[in-house]
Every structure is written in structure tokens, then in C-alpha cells.
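User:
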Amino acid sequence: MNCPNCQAALEENAKFCTNCGTKINEENVAHVATSAQHTETAQHVPNQQEQTGDYVQQGKQISKQYWNFILQAMAHPFEVSKKVREADKVNGMITLALFSLFVPLFTYITIHSLSGGYLAPTFTDVVLKPFIIFLIFFALLIAVKFGVAKLMKANVSFIDVMTRFGTLMVLPTAVAMTAVLFAILDSYTFSSILLLLAISTASMASTATIFSLKTKAPATSGLDVYYGVVLTYVAMAIILLLIGDSILGNLINEMQRGFYGIPF
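Assistant: Predicted structure:
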């Protein structure tokens, strides 16, 4: 218990402050205690509006950085991939995640539109599950590239490999997004061509990543870049056989379920 006037420490049943002589009563003590409690609470409880504002500012900053990253990667993809920084890792992750989303989203929109609504595949099975499978595929592919980089004696980290690959995937992701937009507009032929172009350029990005990694390796020692590309494509084929079967099987099951559910 403290004096309400001078804040000196008091005994429990004190009637007067021995320091300043102020008369002590229960109301004064209660008022001081309540004020101290409110002050302490105000200091420790975070301001929710300030937190929300911080999140908004962080979101704006990430969006601005990603937009600048896209412009640079679209203009000079290979050169930018050779000069990636630690700050670009988030941009690389975003790009790979978007590509993983756009491809199954295109499939969902196309099936739903072409069937006139008779085939109604679930969003979870046709978009979300393949999205996760694509992320797993990219993680395995990056792991293969990292192994190839070590065989080439390139001085890179796993995150560096992912960032370089994500940088080179900006163009395929932009094309895939355009394919989705045209699919929404019911331009199925053109959107299908764009999707094939996105997948083709994604394959080129995979190859270009090996050459980008080679710039961090000695010129005369380590695995030759040609064999690095071969190993990458062999590993990619094996991964696609394992994961692609899961995606196609799930898609066929959904289409059959929708087909047999059509009322005749």
C-alpha cells in the first residue's frame, strides 16, 4: 500500500503517512490502486488499430517489392536469376505458389464451363489438392537441382536455388494467369494454347536454372552442365510419373462422379 500523495510505502492499517502526514483512508488507497492498474493495463495491451495498420503496411511493401521483382524478371529473367538476393526469396516463393494455383484453377474453370454445369468437380479435389501436390513437386524438383548444383560444385544454398528457379518462373506464371483469365472469358482454344505455353516455358525455366547455378561453379571442375540438365530431366520425369498419376487419377474420378450424377 502506498501513500496517495507522495507514494511512500505504508503499513497495512496506517491512518497517516509518516512521510508527508497525509490522512489515509480506504477510498484514496482504492483510487490509487485502480489508477495504477489501468495504467499498467494500458501499457501492456497492444493497440489493435496500430497492429492492423502495421499488417497493411507490410502487405503494401511486399506487394510493391513483388511488382518491381516481376518487372525486372520479365525484362531480363536469366540475368536477374544470377543476381538474386536474400530479400528475393519471398518473391520466388510467391511465384511458385501462384503457378501451382493457376494450373489447377484453369482445369476447374474449363471443366465447369465446357460441361455447362453438368460436371461439378469440387473445388477442393480439383484445385486445392493439386495445388498442394504442385508445391510438393516443386520442392522435390528444387531438391534435385540443389543436388545437381553440389555435383557441379556450385556455391549455393537450397534457398538460393529456389529463388533462382522462382525468378525464372515469373514468365510461365504470367502466361498461366493469362490463360486463366481467357478461360473465364470462355476463350477455351486460346486459353488452352496459353496453358501449354506456360507449361513449356516452365520446362525451359527448369533448364535455365541449371545454367544459372553453373555460374556459381568452377568452370573446369565439377559436373558438366549438360549432365546436370540430363539428371534434372530424368528426376523430373520420375517425379511426374509418381505425382502426375495422383493428379490425373483424382481428376478422372471427379469427372466420372459428376458424369454418373447427371440426371437422364
